[in-house]
Amino acid sequence: MVRLARFSADVFVEATLALVAEGGPSAASMAAIARKVGAPTGSIYHRFESRSAILATAWLECHESFAEALTPALRAGQGLEAALSVTAWARLHRRRARFLLLNEIEALLEDPVPEPLHRRVQQQQAVLDEAFDAYLASQQTKDRTAPPEAMARAKFLIFDGPIALLRPHLLADSSPPPYLDEMITDMHRGLDGNKPDRKIERSGGRRVA
């Protein structure tokens, strides 16, 4: 008779996601993961060779989902749609958003990651980097600013700004409210480097665009 494994790798990954989302990377010790699942600690090592391996696996799952949400809009040259995808993804995947967006990868993967997983992490990072590069390339004929400024603005509008708006809601473990999308849209309208030059005139001491 074939004996099926009682605890799958996915169960341990989900427990890791929950622990990091609740208490940060330090909360996800091997003993804590085992307790969360209700499994003996040794059973984790049958599936993951180290704590860094299980954390890297959890990061890969979250980042792949995040990248899948953003890359279509980035490759289509749609910066606002990509930024709005950040909040939409966080609403659908709150635990994964807390894991991925509230923790730097260096904190999550501070221990050496097994080489095969390390290569997969690099490959997964490259997916989003390449999509962002494709977005920047699509904007070159429209953006009148210098490349470093254009890149910094795009990174802020698509990633850093939306994530900063999400942060207090993720910390509170509450659903991101709809008004964040309005704020992101207003931010793009105000800071988009692709809009035509504005002529500034003075009227009664006020600047009028």
In words, what does this structure look like?
This protein has 209 residues and is an all-alpha fold. The chain has one domain (9-192): Tetracycline Repressor, domain 2 (Orthogonal Bundle), CATH 1.10.357. The chain has ten helices and two strands. It has helices at 9-23, 30-37, 41-45, 51-75, 79-92, 94-101, 105-108, 115-139, 147-171, 179-191, and strands spanning 201-203, 206-208. Strands 1-2 form a two-stranded antiparallel sheet. Helix 4 (51-75) crosses helix 6 (94-101) and helix 9 (147-171) runs antiparallel to helix 10 (179-191). The longest helix has 25 residues, at 51-75. The protein is elongated, with a radius of gyration of 21 Å. Mean pLDDT is 88; it is low at 196-209.
Strand order, sheet with most strands: 1-2
- CATH evolutionary superfamily: Tetracycline Repressor, domain 2
Query: In the CATH scheme, what's the topology name?
Result: Tetracycline Repressor, domain 2
Structural class of the secondary elements? mainly alpha
* Whole-number tally of structural domains: 1
Can you count the beta strands?
2
Helix percent band: 55-70%
Mean pLDDT: 88
Q: What is the CATH top level name? A: Mainly Alpha
Ends apart, CA distance between termini: 78 Å
Please report which band the strand proportion falls in: under 5%, 5-15%, 15-25%, 25-35%, 35-45% or over 45%: under 5%
In N-to-C order, the SSE pattern is: HHHHHHHHHHEE
The outline comes out as elongated
Uncertain runs: 196-209
DSSP helix count? 10
Pfam families: TetR_N (PF00440)
GO molecular function: DNA-binding transcription factor activity; transcription cis-regulatory region binding
Organism: Hypericibacter terrae
Protein name: Putative transcriptional regulator, TetR family protein
